[in-house]
Design brief:
The complex is a heterodimer of chains A (140) and B (101). By secondary structure, chain A is an alpha+beta fold. Chain A contains 2 helices and 4 strands, in the order αββββα. Classes of the chains: A alpha+beta (140), B mainly alpha (101).
């Protein structure tokens, strides 16, 4: 039963990381420089989950862990701002500034999904806690 | 992801540590004592884990709130389990103590 609590907790941690990715994507929806300061628009991050063998019951139930954080590769959102210091100097997009293409709708749907999944796992946690408390009544 | 295996009767092996009723228990007293000490030790380490997690949470360390709260809950559960066993032991002791010779 304590293992079940560990599994639910691993899901809580994983959904938390997913929400972190959403907040990163929304925070950087206008970032036109990357972490190194280069003029590259931010690309959205997506968290990939994986069943976790290190949090498991002998009967095959598995916890979850973050397998990787993937960076999207989409065409940036070009806006015509010729006076901008980071405007593209030559080529097809001369005079345009590359902005990140973060889809706010997708991000919010993801946030709601993560929140609901979090709540569901808190519910499971509560059920296993109640079950353990009920079991203790055997000796009571 | 591997599917959750059906929990069959055959998967439930009989508990190794618990002797069948009526079977001679050669070193039952010693093993029960070590079992008790081990569980107290285990409960203690769980409490220490919970303490550490809360401390990390308070100083803004690398601990998720859910992890800290779950470790508190686990420590509480283990402690209450131990408390129940202790209550049962004391109860049995008092029952025996009241036997008039």
């Amino acid at each position: 039963m304590i293992r079940a609590m560990d599994i639910s907790t691993s899901a809580l941690v994983a959904q938390r990381v997913r929400l972190d990715a959403v907040s990163s994507n929304l925070a950087n929806m206008s970032s036109i420089r990357d972490e190194q300061g280069r003029a590259k628009p931010y690309q959205a991050r997506y968290v990939v989950f994986q069943a976790d063998d290190s949090v498991a019951t002998p009967h095959g139930a598995r916890g979850v862990k973050v397998a990787s954080v993937e960076t999207e590769t989409v065409e940036p959102n070009y806006r015509y701002q010729p006076g901008h210091p980071l405007a593209i100097q030559d080529g097809q997009w001369k005079g345009y500034v590359a902005y990140p293409r973060v889809n706010m709708t997708t991000e919010f749907v993801d946030a709601i999904e993560a929140t609901r999944a979090y709540e569901a796992n808190v519910g499971v946690l509560e059920v296993s806690r109640n079950m353990s408390a009920a079991t203790l009544r055997i000796l009571g | 992801m591997t599917p959750i295996l059906p929990i069959g009767i055959e998967a439930r092996t009989p508990l190794a540590g618990i002797a069948k009723p009526g079977a001679p228990a050669a070193d039952a007293a010693r093993s029960f004592q070590s079992f008790l000490l081990e569980s107290i030790d285990h409960v203690n380490s769980m409490q220490a884990d919970a303490n550490r997690a809360v401390e990390q949470l308070a100083i803004g360390g690398d601990t998720d709130m859910a992890e800290a709260l779950t470790s508190i809950q686990k420590a509480d559960l283990a402690f209450r389990m131990m408390l129940q066993v202790r209550n049962k032991l004391v109860q049995a002791y008092q029952e025996i103590n009241q036997i008039r010779i």
